[in-house]
Amino acid sequence: xxxxxxxxxxxxxxxxxxxxxxxxxxxxxxxxxxxxxxxxxxxxxxxxxxxxxxxxxxxxxxxxxxxxxxxxxxxxxxxxxxxxxxxxxxxxxxxxxxxxxxxxxxxxxxxxxxxxxxxxxxxxxxxxxxxxxxxxxxxxxxxxxxxxxxxxxxxxxxxxxxxxxxxxxxxxxxxxxxxxxxxxxxxxxxxxxxxxxxxxxxxxxxxxxxxxxxxxxxxxxxxxxxxxxxxxxxxxxxxxxxxxxxxxxxxxxxxxxxxxxxxxxxxxxxxxxxxxxxxxxxxxxxxxxxxxxxxxxxxxxxxxxxxxxxxxxxxxxxxxxxxxxxxxxxxxxxxxxxxxxxxxxxxxxxxxxxxxxxxxxxxxxxxxxxxxxxxxxxxxxxxxxxxxxxxxxxxxxxxxxxxxxxxxxxxxxxxxxxxxxxxxxxxxxxxxxxxxxxxxxxxxxxxxxxxxxxxxxxxxxxxxxxxxxxxxxxxxxxxxxxxxxxxxxxxxxxxxxxxxxxxxxxxxxxxxxxxxxxxxxxxxxxxxxxxxxxxxxxxxxxxxxxxxxxxxxxxxxxxxxxxxxxxxxxxxxxxxxxxxxxxxxxxxxxxxxxxxxxxxxxxxxxxxxxxxxxxxxxxxxxxxxxxxxxxxxxxxxxxxxxxxxxxxxxxxxxxxxxxxxxxxxxxxxxxxxxxxxxxxxxxxxxxxxxxxxxxxxxxxxxxxxxxxxxxxxxxxxxxxxxxxxxxxxxxxxxxxxxxxxxxxxxxxxxxxxxxxxxxxxx
Length: 762
Hints:
Keywords: Coiled coil, mRNA transport, Nuclear pore complex, Nucleus, Protein transport, Translocation, Transport. By secondary structure, the protein is of the alpha+beta class.
């Protein structure tokens, strides 16, 4: 899988040279830290780029920032590109880089309480403020100090920091010496990230708050039907022996319960109020016999609501062994429709999809609070009933815990099948992948069918068919017990780096305290079909890969199917005490050779043959297409010639058509003129002509009168001009001048006013 920050990918090879790794190995060599457990643990946790490791020898948590390694490698690349050094100076440069890697500091986080008991797992909450540590007899929560300075180190970068520690459930553990802690995890419904869920060996699921760590917030007995919380220890032992005790749990997405209308006391049965809705978190608990129980947990202030326990959930299709009797872990993937992964000690993984239950099988949620008057709980529940779901097993994958090698000699001693608990961990980079850690190594499992199955269950179409089977992709990443004769070397920690700059990376800590750091997705590329590039038809085909589609599958996908590997060669890291004989090493070599031959050479030969066949077919099609192109070119020349002749004929036809139109118009006009009866249009025109003629006569008379008047006025003007001109007296002339001056001044003022108005309006 291509990481987002490929420029920092070399930090993976530098982690084992980090000072924190050398410190862990030094503690192991000195004998101060000895891991005698034969089962896998979770002693590391990663949040973003922060790596936390539990050091049992000093009883503290070691912390380092992985981005410091990335920055060291980046500086080395810059120096190598900018400087051209000699072999001697290049060796000095590499030596300096090693020292710089060693000088990357780490911090020790000491709890206030000294932990003498063994810690089996650590985890950090979402906000990164608390770290949870638990073992079979201890639960501690460390409050992380403030961070500042370079790389946001704790307390500015102190080597040793003392952290406030919170004890959880000590009173419960001291009351019973036989009580064991099976699993502890952070409650996802806690808004303050201060609640933890605890599963104990007495079949109880408890939720504790850090603020009130000795008294559980809620306690549920994981048992079908009614059960008492005060069961005897002997009954618990018998239940554990029979596999009736829950061994692991995981949370699903929350659901909201709608309240019912409740009748108020004293109202005569006429009044009532509706209970406010509540958000609950389904908790899937798997028993040792493989049965799955469903518990509903809530963190609301209404503590008196006792939610029922559902199960054992029915699993389809039914199996003779009920899908195993040695279940050890359960995982719920973060998908719209819950997908459960159940692992067994034999290395089997059952991939189940939750189906909605019917209303007939629903469980009623009853109020468990006794009133102050000592009345019994109401018979009707406060909330709407929850139908009990069922599980449909999509597939069952079998992990190869120890490598199966060919038997060289029939008289060779055969070993019993190896069994160990398999721990499951989600992948924060993609919802359709998870990882498995156990006493013999690490496996990575991808579910290519997840998107299509989710769409099938989310669709409203009743006629839709269930998608066809598509096997999961199991990748054997790390093998610490290659053969049955090798000593058990459990994985001490497994987690996933989700930082975009560092890239999606799987980090595993083996029993020899060495890290195996690998990029995720070596064989299986996780893609989002809705965001995949390509044409619309290709994207539509990708969204429904299992349905009947007439669209032809691309040849690239066919090659990918041919080259898809069903088994892989893991990284062999047996323990330091492993002493393999020459015969065992030859068996491992034969196994690796056979896998390489089957998974690589044979499939590549098959793909090569398909490519040759495809090439020959394409060459034949190319020849036919070239012949078709040549014939089309010849046809194009003929078509051009015929088009030229047709265009000439078309022009001639246009000319003939225009001449015919002119002749037709002349014929029609002649025919129209020879008609003895006037048409309506001609009569209208005749009327208009008569009106025009009468108007012309009238105009002629008017013009004649105007001319006569003009001649008469001319004669009068000549007669007046020939006489004496009138004369004005001096006083009359002065008066006329004054009047003209006044009118001129008035006209000037009017002009100015008009000018001002124009300026104002403009």
